[in-house]
């Protein structure tokens, strides 16, 4: 249901919040209640500062894309869209979003990332296993329309506020909320020190891992499965509460080429710095990425180049990667007019590891929404396996914990159904002074349990580093 060309005409940045409200109230003749999305340019604050300064105002969200030209921070939930029982979770969110947009007075022009934006994600499986309380604050999907949102887009900064108005609403009171919010944002920031790591408790011993991996490899050799991605988790305890803003700051600093995301749910926060795009939709352009196959970074430049060369020429890693390329090709094919996928991968370098990477660009046919594409693509064989159903069954039965939102889609979408979703890996769930971290690896017929264990060890480093735990 994408409207072509976006919502475009009047320049929001030139219309005061008062005038935006007056324009919206004109529609109250036809409706008793209206949703408004008020946007005002604001220059003196970054998304990270907004995140820090709104700590006491409600649950927060944060998003940065790999280039950093789009950063969003939000606080409070004006709406929380969760899948309705028994419905397809992506379809259910889409229907609720369309219903909201029907009642929303939209600005005639919107800058990407401002105005009504849903931010959130979905669990890896289509359900959350509530027998374990790790993920009790998280549903199988939740997209949030923040009360307040600060967007940094191509060097410009905007404040968006969502509210419901009816004929009894005092328009001045709503406009004054901007003044109040700006007062909160002008207060100085208290820097918080990162806590010290006290213990790291890998509930999954190496023996457990080896048994699980051997079972997966045997299943693959018996041809009941081609590839399965298996993960482990580790609990890290710190000496005091983990300050989220400082962790985000370190992620932005150190994890280049990565998305940075946070979603707070009361005392819990799901946070990560992932390199893996699932899908981006902008008008009729689609971008996706195949990212699978891993090695470490070298200590010297020569060493690094050698590792990259070995990765590019390693049969096992190329096979692991190729399952992802084939699957993404097949999944997007029905939705696109044409696509471009290079035949050979290149190296995607990160701070502590490097991956095989094949970019996907395509021109969409008119009728696909980003949520449909997320549904089709998730999970790719970089997170699930091949064939998908069998791999998911193997993970569900054999992995000794619930993945929750780890490896699920996380991202945003707007009123045109343009948006971007990443895959929530290199991530963890933070509660007070505890972080539960997750890392997985693609298992194929030539996998070696020891080497895969080492691969997951280096995949914990980005999160440990951000938490200050690797010095
Ligand atoms: C599942 C994870 O990584 C995936 C993404 C890139 C490379 C991968 C690999 O080489 O195994 C994994 O498929 C993770 O980091 O937890
Ligand atoms: Mg791998």
TrEMBL record:
- Keyword set, alphabetical order: Isomerase, Magnesium, Menaquinone biosynthesis, Metal-binding
Q: Which transformation does this protein catalyse, written as a reaction?
A: chorismate = isochorismate
What the protein does comes down to: Catalyzes the conversion of chorismate to isochorismate.
**Which GO terms of type biological process are on file?**
menaquinone biosynthetic process; salicylic acid biosynthetic process
Query: Is Transferase among the key words of this record?
Result: no
Q: Which PANTHER family match?
A: ISOCHORISMATE SYNTHASE ENTC, ISOCHORISMATE SYNTHASE MENF
Q: Which InterPro entries match?
A: ADC_synthase, Chorismate_C, IsoChor_synthase, MenF
Q: Which residues form the Chorismate-utilising enzyme C-terminal domain?
A: 207-459
**Pathway info:** Quinol/quinone metabolism; menaquinone biosynthesis; Quinol/quinone metabolism; 1,4-dihydroxy-2-naphthoate biosynthesis; 1,4-dihydroxy-2-naphthoate from chorismate: step 1/7
Q: Which GO terms describe its molecular function?
A: isochorismate synthase activity; magnesium ion binding
Q: Which residues form the active site?
A: 227, 276
The UniProt record lists the EC number as: 5.4.4.2
Query: Enzyme class, one word?
Result: isomerase
Q: Does the keyword rRNA processing apply?
A: no
One Pfam family here? Chorismate_bind
Q: What is the lineage of its organism?
A: Bacteria, Bacillati, Bacillota, Bacilli, Bacillales
* Domain of life the protein comes from: Bacteria
- Cofactor (UniProt): Mg(2+)
Q: What family does the database annotate?
A: Belongs to the isochorismate synthase family.
Q: Provide the binding site for Mg(2+).
A: 320, 455
Query: Could you identify this protein by its name?
Result: Isochorismate synthase MenF
């Amino acid at each position: 249901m994408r409207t072509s060309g976006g919502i475009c005409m009047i320049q929001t940045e030139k219309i005061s919040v008062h005038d935006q409200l007056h324009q919206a109230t004109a529609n109250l003749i036809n409706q008793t209640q209206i949703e408004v999305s008020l946007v005002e340019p604001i220059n003196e604050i970054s998304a990270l500062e907004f995140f820090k300064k709104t700590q006491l105002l409600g649950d927060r969200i944060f998003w940065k894309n790999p280039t950093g030209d789009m950063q969003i921070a939000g606080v409070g939930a004006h709406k929380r869209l969760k899948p309705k029982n028994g419905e397809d979770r992506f379809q259910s969110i889409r229907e609720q979003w369309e219903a909201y947009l029907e009642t929303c007075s939209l600005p005639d022009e919107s800058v990407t990332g401002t105005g009504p934006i849903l931010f959130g994600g979905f669990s890896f499986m289509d359900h959350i296993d509530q027998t374990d309380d790790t993920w009790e604050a998280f549903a199988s999907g939740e997209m949030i329309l923040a009360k307040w949102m600060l967007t940094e887009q191509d060097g410009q900064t905007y404040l968006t506020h969502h509210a419901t108005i009816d004929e009894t609403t005092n328009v001045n009171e709503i406009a004054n909320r901007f003044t109040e919010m700006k007062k909160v944002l002008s207060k100085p920031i208290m820097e918080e020190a990162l806590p010290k790591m006290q213990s790291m408790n890998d509930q999954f011993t190496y023996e457990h891992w080896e048994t699980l991996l051997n079972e997966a490899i045997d299943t693959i050799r018996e041809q009941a499965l081609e590839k399965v991605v298996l993960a482990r988790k580790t609990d890290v305890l710190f000496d005091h509460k983990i300050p989220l803003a400082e962790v985000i700051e370190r992620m932005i600093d150190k994890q280049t080429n990565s998305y940075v995301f946070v979603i707070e749910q009361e005392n819990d926060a799901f946070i990560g710095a992932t390199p893996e795009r699932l899908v981006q939709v902008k008008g009729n352009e689609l971008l996706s990425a195949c990212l699978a196959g891993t090695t470490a970074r070298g200590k010297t430049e020569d060493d690094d180049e050698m590792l990259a060369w070995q990765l590019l020429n390693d049969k096992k890693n190329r096979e692991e990667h190729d399952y992802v390329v084939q699957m993404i090709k097949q999944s997007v094919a029905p939705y696109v007019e044409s696509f471009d996928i290079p035949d050979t991968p290149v190296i995607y370098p990160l701070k502590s590891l490097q991956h095989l990477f094949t970019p996907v660009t395509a021109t969409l046919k008119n009728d696909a929404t980003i949520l449909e594409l997320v549904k089709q693509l998730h999970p790719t064989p970089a997170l699930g396996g091949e064939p998908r159903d069998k791999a998911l069954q193997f993970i569900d039965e054999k992995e000794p914990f619930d993945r929750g939102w780890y490896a699920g889609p996380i991202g945003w979408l707007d009123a045109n159904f343009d948006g971007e979703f990443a895959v929530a890996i290199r991530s963890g769930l933070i509660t007070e002074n505890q972080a539960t971290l997750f890392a997985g690896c693609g298992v194929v017929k030539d996998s070696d349990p020891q080497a895969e264990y080492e691969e997951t060890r280096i995949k914990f480093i980005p999160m440990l580093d951000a938490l200050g735990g690797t010095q």
